[in-house]
Amino acid sequence: MKIAFYGSSLLSSYWNGAATYYRGILRALAARGHAITFYEPDAYDRQAHRDIEPPEWARSVVYDATPEGVSGVLAEAGEADVVVKANGVGVFDHELLDGMLRKARPDALKVYWDVDAAATLDEVRADPDHPLRAALAELDIVFTYGGGPPVVEAYEGFGARECVPVYNALDVTTHFPVEPDPRFASDLAFLANRLPDREARVEEFFLKPAALLPERRFLIGGNGWEDKVMPENVRAIGHVGTGDHNAFNCTPLAVLNVARDSMAEVGFSPATRVFEAAGAGACLITDAWEGIDMFLEPGREVLVARDGQEVAEHLASLTPQRAQEIGRAARERVRREHTYELRAELVDSVLRRLHAKAREVTA
Q1: What is the value of pTM for the model shown?
Q2: What is the DSSP secondary structure assignment for residue 282, as one 8-state letter?
Q3: CA dist., res. 156 & res. 118, Å (int)
Q4: Which CATH fold topology does 182-337 show?
């Protein structure tokens, strides 16, 4: 099928944590025979911080972040069998959602793909006039990259015909073990952009352990941390491009995952970083959230901490041998059960089922 996908950015991970998710799932869908065009705005300086050039498995269209630019790319929606609007494009989100519904062919599938479902649902609950409320009745399906049963129930409660979680996963062509890199030498490393709904948890799960273990080395990567007050044993290195993610994950003794507030509250929302780290064979320490055992086994494939004190305790007792054992077990698990090829198989089956149903209705 021909898929038109309107998202934040495929080419750049700069202030765009969804980039590796888009790349993984769309590459795998292309391998299953789908023809994909990804439309992204020239916004937030992302084009100046590209991680990749336009890939061979998708047509890439970068448009001006203007009403005229939006109108131009929406005109192509009518050529697709499947039209997808992702949340969090960052500019003209409401116009893109309304436009894709108006421009899509009557027989085309109309999809909303939510890569931040917990936060989106909070917005919808707080705003009776939120544009997504009215749009749900016209959408064929909502895909989310996490959230499990609570998100499914919430979306269907707001009127979605169907909601299917398509979780983050491992792109085996991109994330794998590499040699350590001295730039990322540390005992515990954390990679994430600084966002308001994550900062308090970063203070608890990362900065508190750093203060408790002054003899250990801590490393933080991502945008926005340069003016954050931190213990002296924490080194902030700014944006880390996806080309360096493997080395970032393979070099430290352990890597930390910290969920955003909304995702931690809902659960069933493993971040992309979880699978990137596991795919590289890293020893992962994660904050506790419901559903973690669906993806990795606590104690054997991942270390789980309820607070910063437990992060510090895990790190203080962790030996290089134990870290390697955990990382090895995690890598085996995600390569077996959590790859984008498997996620794409799910999406492909759902799209083909809905497409066949739509053809029956219009026949």
Answers
A1: 0.92
A2: -
A3: 14
A4: Rossmann fold (3.40.50)
